[in-house]
Amino acid sequence: MPESAATRRPRALVALVAVLVAAFGICMVTGWGGATVSSAVSGAGTVAMTVAAGIACLVRARGCRGRDRTVWAVLAAGCFVYTFGESAWASIETIHGREVPFPGLPDAGYLGMVPLAALALLLVPTPRQPAPQRLRTVVDAAMIASSLLLISWLLVLDPMLDEGAAGLTRAVSLGYPLSGVVLVTVVLHTLAVLRRDNPHAGALTVVGVGMVVLGVSDSAYAYISVHHSYTSGGLLDTGWFVAFALVLLAARHPAKAVAVVDGPAEPRAFALLVPYVPILLAVICSVTFSAVTGHTDAFHATCRAVLILLVVSRQLLTLLENRHLTRGLEARVAERTAELQARELRFRALVQQSSESVAIADADSTLRYQSDSVERVFGWPARMLLGHRLVEITGRRAGPRIAAAIDAVLAGPERVTVLEVPLRHQDGQVRLAEMTITNLLDDPAVGGLVLNTRDVHDAKELQERLMHEAYHDGLTGLPSRALFRERLVEAVEGTGTDDVAILFLDLDGFKEVNDSLGHAAGDLLLCQVAERLQAAVREGDTVARFGGDEFGVIVESLAARADAEAVAGRIAAALEAPFRVGERELPVAASIGLACAADAEDVDQLQRNADLAMYRAKSGGGNGLAAYDPAMLSGLVRRLELEADLRTALAREELVLHYQPTVDLRTGEITGFEALVRWHHPTRGMISPLDFIGAAEATGLIVPLGRWVLREACRQAVAWGAGSTRPLKMAVNVSVRQFEHGDLAATVAEVVAETGMPVGQLCLEMTESVLLTDTEENLAQLQRLKALGVTLAMDDFGTGYSSLAYLRRFPMDTLKIDRSFVDRLGGDREDEALVRTIVRLGQSLGMTTVAEGIEDSEQLAVLQELRCDYAQGFYLSRPLPADEAGRVLVEGFAAKMH
Ligand code: C2E
Ligand code: CA
Ligand code: CA
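^ thats the input. predicted complex w/ calcium ion below
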């Protein structure tokens, strides 16, 4: 692993410090340059080193937080205090060349450093400890302190006291060895309790070593001062230099990123042994001293007694601590056992209460464990099953399948197999069960095959029912649109697109049957249609009902298009015979759209194509077949564009009304006009209402459009009426949608009031569809219109689902005979008879009759002869813009009448 800059830097520093220490040491030992020089070198070197160490500690403090920061800051303060002492010494001795007074300023610096260093170490965060352990660490500290004190007493303190110095001098000289004792005690104590996960542990250990070196040096200084005499610049000075070099290194020692371990830390073996080292040394010193001098002073004896006392109490404390630890351990074990027991009880309850049967079996399917829940699920008590081989007791159908499943899971450990098998309930019913077999033979906790079995009978049945419902039409039992689509996907993917064609069917006039005869009759009709469709297709073709009166057929064959055409032909033929619904015979035809998979990119497009073709068949008058061709799509696009444009047409005033005169067949006079809307499309030119009224109805735009037409026609009628003596009738077409959305009677009342139109001169034309849909509601609306005084005309009479009964019920005033009947006049007598009947019918109901679409004089003559009341048609006049219509009104066209 490449070394990082951070690890390389301290190593370089170690090397540098080592070189400096070595140079310093050599200088001191060899006394190079004489006493003055080496003393100067010693002074300057130590000052430099303490300053460096102090700065390093400050830098480190800045990078720390909390207690750690304080530790390093106090340590830095210690270094600087020492700097002060050393500088004072150097300046007095080297610069001023005087002898350093004792005690003097330097001593304040040297000794002042000790409490700061000790404080720093005592501030190091220590782990939380239980009471006995805490007490033991205190005793340990006392043991260390008393051992060191004894050693110091024997080597330094006692001789110093003998010297006879008095007062401050004695106190200061004793201060050095005592500082040593304090420093070493604090260091050993701190290292003993230091947390292993303290990120500064390494650095603090190095500081500790430095402080030990300092303490030993101080004591040595005191010893030398007592027994010999101290001169600076000797080997001893290396001790202080090294001590601060170690502090410098420690401050630069990188902090370790260690995960903080919570909870009490176990005591380290090192920590337990630490106090015995000074004791051992103290014992050796004490014994040697007694042997050499042959006497023991009181302090010596007291110290020894205290030490013995401390050792004994420490042993006692260790014992207590062990007891405490053991108790904690026992409690933890008991807790864990209780937890395991609770867990097992919980598990057992879960298994017993489960809606599954849980069992453990041997490899040969012999049941070794069986949960009691099996009785709830399958009725059998667990004890009846235990010891039996599952493959034998599950019956002829399930047994072999379970055996095969077991063979499969035995292939490897932890293999799982799920299978559905019929199992006999104790009450005799055979229920479908889902069994999961897991091979846990190798799992020491189980050592068997685990079988989880649940009853899925009802769920399965429900699922099947739901599936059937989703895939079948409730009324006819035919496949639904969803199933149709699925089969279509299968067919297209299975046989290739060239071999599939579909037919979409829509019954013509079914809505009218439903509306007039009721839903029950409609349903009956649909069922019969479904039967005939099924009979008309080939075996294997899918017939589906999409809803309403829409059906679909999938034709799969090598000549799909031709075969689909043939099927469509057969369907048309099958529908030819009228259907019997109750008393009635109803003719039903279908508009059929055909599309081939070859023309579509996917199934959705294929269905869209068939839909388009079906609409084409429908708009071609119904009862026919249309095959999809791409032009239809562009037709659709045009229609959608038209719809979008229509929304803005009203606002942009692109709509205009043309007026077609109505003529009295007896007098030849113009009695009124029919208002017919046209659309001046900005790009497509004049558009016929046939091309946009449908779209307006589909989008609901017919409501505002119809209101506009009504207002405009009334306005125009009032304008013409002002200059004319005759009361002019204005006929306005209304769509059945205007009855459904909004209140037509209210709209009419509003417009009439607004324009000043005499309401008796307004005629509303509507087709039979108004009478056929939502009958009661429409009847009420018609009556409200009638009450206003409006004239009502039945438009296109004869083309719809005309029921004479309706005509009697509804308050109609006028019958407009459809153009298709007028068309046939002039040749065949039979067709004349039809129109004659309609005219008579109108007369018998008290209705006026209007003939539409008169294109020649012959037709006009026949209608006059049949005593039809009014006439309209290109022969007389095309629908005209308002100004031209106004002219015709003045001129009249009596010339065209006979
Ligand atoms: P409609 O109510 O049956 O109107 C008569 C249609 O027959 C008009 O077509 C008229 O131009 C046409 N016509 C009149 N005389 C002759 C003739 O001698 N020969 C032929 N071949 N045709 C003749 P137009 O104006 O294209 O209107 C078509 C249909 O659009 C109307 O049929 C009506 O149902 C609907 N429509 C027109 N204007 C409106 C309207 O303002 N509101 C509603 N809801 N529908 C309208
Ligand atoms: Ca009309
Ligand atoms: Ca008409």
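Residues 660, 676-677, 688-690, 693, 706, 709, 733-735, 765, 795-796, 819, 852-855, 872-874, 879 surround C2E (ligand 1) (CB under 6 Å).
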